[in-house]
Amino acid sequence: MSEAHCNKLPQRKALGLVTHDNTGGPFVVECQGCGEVYPSFHCLGGEQIADTGDHEDARCPHCDQIDPEECDNAALAWNIQQLKINELQRRLNAADQRIDELTAQQAESRVITLSGCEFTEHDLLHTAVRMVTGTSRRGTLRWVAMKDAFCCGSGVAHALCWRFGFDPDETVKP
Ligand SMILES: [Zn+2]
Questions:
Q1: Which range of residues forms the domain containing residue 127?
Q2: Which of 64, 85, 108 is the last residue of a domain?
Q3: pLDDT tens track for 70-94
């Protein structure tokens, strides 16, 4: 039995799981209004109305449908989660690749000594790139600020941004 079979309610809640054993509580919604599939605790409303036993209607957070229905299509619910996993996997791979690139760049970077302190050229360059700001109070595109600071062309300016993980098209201010 896996954690998914857990029948301790607080633990189930902490893990963001829905009820799988007919004990009541959150369920998987397939909204009849917009078709979105999500756990019922994402619904809006549903609060108890003060001093009455009644609850206000639950509403779909995507389309405001009143009382969105329970999903009885297990395969659809699975596929929705699988697509999220695929997307996370893609982002994880991209992040791993980025870490590998940065690690490799750092490893091949020369160490220089300044006033008795050792720096890699990578670290010095990184600091310089990070500290570049615009001169206009309205903001400057990062790659343009980089071009001015390093007296380089736009291609090198973009490459400097990418190498150190900055967005060349974001705005920097003084
Ligand atoms: Zn909806």
A1: 111-172
A2: 108
A3: 999 999 999 999 999 999 999 999 9
